[in-house]
Structure formats: structure tokens, C-alpha cells
Design a protein that fits this description.
Belongs to the phosphohexose mutase family. With 466 residues, the protein is α/β, with parallel strands linked by helices. Helix content is 38%, strand content 22%.
């Protein structure tokens, strides 16, 4: 099985051996490293008060176990805990500054299957840690340089289960969210909550916007009914149900509710890449400005941004990289092509609740069906592939070989290797969350995107000798 240590946290499969999987020992070790990092980073503050960390989890089966381990580790370090219980990643992100906390931990493996879990680490702004801070935490964990508190100085726990409701209130109060316009349309929407916390919070948001809700897999029991990554091959049930119910569209979120995909009224995928495109189209039509997405995302966002007179830029993959570039360029909206919407008017984090509310408002004002709205955007097609890695494969050497081979093309090595051809592109990179090389391509047709992907998968395998 697998344990992945990265600057964004620790992610792995439950069970197995210490250091090879996300075992209880590993959970305690990395929670200890994070808590120790906060204490070292706030040494002047802790003379006057205890540090405070917000924690929340998705509905994974292993969630309560990991939650208890992490919470009690922080208590043992003398850190107070604001426990949100069952929650979402964006909910924890907004709770950190509202609670004036020193950090936050989200216990979720996001789109990974049920055997996975993770500790995703936040700073005092409710944003993911940068590379420098992440590297310090990994070093603290490696050295096991922990100093736990004596009995009179242990932390305390405060439970607060109201934050998903607070999150909904924050979203509905956004100036560009027009609840009355949405209510007037009397939309009917199917929601697939993949039996996690999205099955609670998204229906509640929809109902408060006057939407008729049809629930599919909305029981937060952690038994994911399909692969939780919101890709077309996993979403046959909701595509069928949208048509059967004569719904206006369908909504799919991943287990921690930071990725958002739509199903058009005809039962076809709206396209997770086009979640950000549609929401950005609405925001840019009301507020002039710039956009950012990562370099694995569709060119369609660039086209829409330029249509509205803004400037588009691409960052390395990873939410923290998108956020950093958004701040540098004063981008008014950004995100990732995997269905992640980052809207700074709310907060600097991928947020499906924000995405749903803005999309509904956009749809209400367009007087178009979802299928018609999708057809109005530039047509690009992507192919997303991957190659499983083994310890013997030298990914850096493989990517260098590809760089050398295509050195005469428009090439970027900011994050892996991205090769821009005149009408298509390919992006090759090692995943931050799984032991794989990702191969993303985009072209004017699905056939061209697939052919390009097949070509590069073959070339990579030849170089790797697999």
C-alpha cells in the first residue's frame, strides 16, 4: 500500500506497516510535527495564550479513528482544538480565520477511494501551507523533535457543529449570488454526494436557494458507491437520473467538497474543466479582472478571460501555487480544471458551495438550459491518463528525457513538462497525491486529444522500460 509525504500534508492507505501506510503511529507523528511547527512559529504568542487549531473531517470510514488520534495529539502538545466534526475542506478553511485560530487540519483524502485518508494542513489564514513551511514540518517529523506538554498545560476541545450552516450563510451573502433570481427559476437539481459530507451541505444550500433537490448517495456513511473522483466513467447513475427526473442539471462533489462537476440536462457531462469556465464567465461579466488556473487546465479559461478584457496566467499544479499566483496578479477568480473554484471574495480555497451558488445565479440570468450554456463556450477536449509508478522508475530522468526530445517546441518545466503545440498541448507530471505520472492532453477534438495521449503514454513507457 502507500504513504505519501508532501509539503501539503500526509496521505496514505489505512492499515499495514508504520512508515509504509497511514497507520495510527504515522497519524500521531505528523500531527505532532504540525503542532510542533505551530509552537515554534508562534513562540512569542504562546507565553500569553494557548494555540488553537480547527479540525474537521469528511465521512470516510477511517475518519473517526484518525480524527481522535490527531485531536488528542494536539491536546497533548498543549494546543486547543475547535472540533467541527463532520465537515468539508472549504468549511474548515473559512472557520480558521473566523475562529482566529493558528491553523487547521482537514482529515480527508479528497478524491481518493475509501481506503485512503490524509492530513491536509492549513495556516492561520485558512490556506494551505507553502512549500517552505511544509518542508519544515516534514523535517520535524523525520527528526521526531516533539516536546509534549505537562499535565497542567494540556489543550482543551471545543465542539462546534454549526460551521456548515455558517458556511452556507457566508456563501449566500456574497454580492454576486442572487438568491431571488434563482428562486424565481424553480430549478430542479440532482445531487450526488458520494455518501460524504457533501450529501448534507449541498442539498441544504440548494434548498435555501429555492431549488428542488433530488438526492443520490447523500447518506454520509463513508461507503462510497463509486470511485469518488468526479469523472465521467464514475457517474453513470447520476447521468441517468438527471434525464429520468427531467432535472435542470446534476451536481457531483468529491468527499471533501472542494471539487465540483455538473451534469447537463441531457444527461451528458458538462465537463469538470468547464465548471471554472462557466463560473468565471459569470464573475468576469460582473467584475473586470484577471484569472489563474494551473497548467493542466483547459485553454477555455484563457479564451473566456480575454473575451472579458482580462489577463489569464497559468501556475504550477497545486492549490497553493494557484493561490500564490492569484495574489500576485490580483486575480478575481481562479482554480483548477478538476472542478475547483477559488473565489477570493469568499476565501482563497477551492469551494464547491461557492461554485454551486455562482453557477446557479449565472444560469438563472442566462435563460439557457445547461446544455445550451455549455455549447456556448469554446470547444476543447481533454484526455487524462496516468502511468503507475514503481520505486525503480526515475521520474525526474524520464521527464528530463522528454524535455530534451521536445526542446524545439514551446515548453515549460515549471511543473513537470508541458509542451504547447499550435492547436494542442500535453502536460506530463508526477502526482502530488498518488504514485503515478499524470499525462494530460487537450486538442480541438476528443479523437485528437486521445491520439496525442496514446502517443505520449507510449513514449513514456519506452523511456521507463515498462
Amino acid at each position: 500500500m502507500t504513504l505519501i509525504k508532501s509539503i501539503s500534508g500526509i496521505r496514505g492507505t489505512i492499515g499495514g506497516k508504520v512508515g509504509d501506510n497511514l497507520t495510527p503511529v504515522d497519524a500521531v507523528k505528523f500531527a505532532s510535527a504540525y503542532g510542533t511547527f505551530l509552537k515554534l512559529n508562534n513562540s512569542a504568542v504562546i507565553k500569553d495564550r494557548r494555540l488553537k487549531v480547527v479540525i474537521g473531517r469528511d465521512a470516510r470510514i477511517s475518519g473517526p479513528m484518525i480524527h481522535n488520534l490527531v485531536q488528542n495529539t494536539l491536546i497533548g502538545l498543549g494546543i486547543d482544538v475547535i472540533d467541527l466534526g463532520l465537515s468539508t475542506t472549504p468549511t474548515v478553511e473559512i472557520a480558521v480565520p473566523l475562529e482566529k485560530a493558528d491553523g487547521g487540519i482537514i482529515l480527508t483524502a479528497s478524491h481518493n477511494p475509501k481506503q485512503w485518508n490524509a492530513l491536509k494542513l492549513l495556516n492561520n489564514k485558512g490556506e494551505f501551507l507553502n512549500g517552505t513551511d511544509g518542508a519544515i514540518i516534514l523535517k520535524i517529523a523525520e527528526d521526531e523533535a516533539f516536546d509534549f506538554s505537562e499535565v497542567d498545560y494540556l489543550g482543551e476541545v471545543t465542539e462546534n457543529s454549526s460551521y456548515m450552516d455558517i458556511h452556507i450563510d457566508e456563501v449566500l451573502a456574497l454580492p454576486l449570488v442572487d438568491v431571488e433570481a434563482v428562486k424565481a427559476k424553480q430549478f430542479k437539481v440532482v445531487i450526488d454526494g458520494v455518501n460524504s459530507s457533501g450529501g448534507i451541505v449541498i442539498p441544504n444550500l440548494l434548498e435555501q436557494m429555492g431549488v428542488e433537490v433530488v438526492k443520490l448517495y447523500c447518506e454520509p456513511n463513508g461507503h462510497f458507491p463509486h470511485n469518488p473522483e468526479p469523472l465521467k466513467e464514475h457517474l453513470g447513475d447520476i447521468c441517468k437520473l438527471v434525464v429520468e427526473e427531467k432535472a435542470d442539471f446534476g451536481i457531483v462533489v468529491d468527499p471533501d467538497v472542494d471539487r465540483l462537476a455538473f451534469i447537463s440536462n441531457d444527461g451528458e457531462m458538462f465537463g469538470e474543466e468547464y465548471t471554472l469556465v462557466a463560473v468565471a464567465d459569470y464573475v468576469l461579466s460582473r467584475t473586470k479582472g484577471n484569472t489563474v488556473s494551473n497548467m493542466s487546465s483547459s485553454r477555455a479559461l484563457r479564451d473566456i478571460t480575454e473575451k472579458h478584457g482580462g489577463k489569464y496566467q497559468a501556475s504550477a499544479v497545486g492549490e497553493v501555487n494557484v493561490v500564490t499566483l492569484m495574489k500576485e496578479t490580483n486575480a478575481i477568480i481562479g482554480g483548477e480544471g478538476n472542478g475547483g473554484i477559488i473565489y477570493p471574495e469568499s476565501h482563497y480555497g477551492r469551494d464547491s458551495l461557492v461554485g454551486v451558488a455562482l453557477f446557479l445565479t449565472h444560469l438563472a440570468k442566462q435563460n439557457l438550459s445547461v446544455a445550451e450554456l455549455r455549447a456556448s463556450y469554446p470547444h476543447y477536449f481533454m484526455s487524462k491518463n496516468k502511468i503507475e509508478l514503481t520505486p525503480q522508475i526515475d521520474v525526474d530522468l524520464i521527464l528530463k528525457s522528454m524535455t530534451d526530445k521536445y526542446k524545439n517546441e514551446d515548453i515549460s518545466t515549471i511543473d513537470g513538462v508541458k509542451i504547447d503545440f499550435p492547436t494542442e498541448w500535453v502536460h506530463l507530471r508526477k502526482s502530488n497525491t498518488e504514485p503515478i505520472i499524470r499525462i494530460y492532453t487537450e486538442a480541438p477534438s476528443q479523437k485528437e486529444a486521445d491520439v496525442l495521449a496514446e502517443r505520449f503514454v507510449k513514449e513514456l513507457k519506452e523511456i521507463a522500460g515498462i
